[in-house]
Amino acid sequence: MEMQRWSTRWKTKSWFMDSTITAFITLTMLLQAAKVRAAEPVDVLKVLAFQNYPEGVTKTTGFCANRRASKPDSAYRVSKQIQISAPTTQLFPGGVFPEDFSILTTVRPKSGLQSFLLSIYNEQGVQQLGVEVGRSPVFLYEDQTGKPTPEDYPLFSSLNLANGKWHRVAISVEKKTVTIIVDCKKKITKRLLRSDQASISTNGITVFGTRILDEEVFQ
């Protein structure tokens, strides 16, 4: 996945997942522009080549095992040592990350987990965007000016995504707010104290299941 050029920029560690514990994630994680009708969704898992079943990734039954008019949902099971990442330009070949966007996923984390599902870094190794799932989901966002600061990252402490159940999660960023919708029922909106005309660089790397040098990994 063209990973060699990143080895001298960051000191990365091996990321391990306990093979005795199974975890599942469906294939519906998408990033897309919220306002531009012509913008095409980005299937993050497809870009990260999950469909090629890298070591530690297998196919399994997803959210709905029985559907009358179509085949059962499918999902990826993550159960072994994995290290999955790619240059962010592979997600956005045009080099532009949308100012307003949505992230959609259907996920079943390990019970009690608190870890990053997705992390996007710039060329200096600064994490610009992150989706942390678990007992208290966190949306990490840091624009080109360093806003918002870590103490202002939106925290959704009233939600628990790591209760051993499937959850459909939508995160929508528009202007200076971020809204999370869980299972089409719970909806929470928080302030996102970013700059006017905030931007995210696509000249870095996108990492699945953790963030660089973190001990916690998605299971």
From TrEMBL:
Gene3D superfamilies: 2.60.120.200
Pfam families cross-referenced by the UniProt entry: Laminin_G_2
Organism of provenance: Xenoophorus captivus
Domain named Thrombospondin-like N-terminal: residues: 41-219
Record keywords: Repeat, Signal
InterPro entries associated with the record: ConA-like_dom_sf, Laminin_G, TSPN-like_N
Key word Repeat present: yes
Name of protein: Thrombospondin-like N-terminal domain-containing protein
